[in-house]
Amino acid sequence: MSLASPQLSGFETWARGDLLVIVLLVLGAVLLTRLANWVRGKVVAHIDARAAGADELVRSEAAKHRHVAAQVITWGTLAIVYIVTGVLIIQKLGVPLAGLVAPAALVSAALGFGMQRFVQDIGAGFFLTGERQYGFGDLVRINASSVSDPVSGTVEEVTLRITRLRTDSGEVVFIPNGQIVQVTNLSREWARAVVDVPVPARVDVAHATDVLRKAGEEAYADDRLRKIMLDQPVVMGVEGIGVDTLSIRMVARTLPGMQFTVSRELRARVARSFRAEGIVVAAEATTAKATGAAS
After folding, report:
1. Model pTM greater than 0.85?
2. Fewer Cβ in 10 A, N or C end of the chain?
3. How many domains does the chain have?
């Protein structure tokens, strides 16, 4: 004669049946998460290996977009896995899905305003990814609707909901995709280094221009700089006239993201050249806002 109660026997049957299925579903979701992250890591490593094998100083546009696509696909796949797993677990718990329709409608109506921004972020993420506005490793400047000042930094991660930037000083900034109003990509195809050099008004402009042109030629002849410069720096001429100074502008096209390095090198060479010619600069040479190419 069995001492087990009917209720205990029923729990044993449920534990051996539905509970085991629930445990397997949870384990399956965990394993799929690990598998998806492992596959993404392999894909990203393959993209980086191909870029390194090509000896490129910057990532190609295709490689940057593949990085973003791998992250977005992984994020979307895991979202589907979690939703399907949750629905199956609810079914195994014996909760009728038809009975959840009315409560779900009430909850969705109550959370409608809160979820509106989430849905907006997801929709914007689809457009950002599909239009290839920026990719992993791009240097961008983003204007967000909730922030008065734009945020500049290097793209470290892009999902359907957020974009993560790393600023020059090392801070990590998370920007919801739905709040992005304008994106300035400083790493698209090519960039421009712009250096405005203040020269005393008493100095002969033609002589100062020749000194700047020679400094640009020397910079372009440097093998280290020539790898990141697309053409020789050009002296555009007098850009502005002050009370005691003239501003002469130098411009150089560079590889994407290299405009700041080239600007610093040009300023150092201009300072040395002026010192050698006995030209005293009234103020420190300033670098105008570097720009990227218009796509």
Report:
1. no
2. N
3. 2
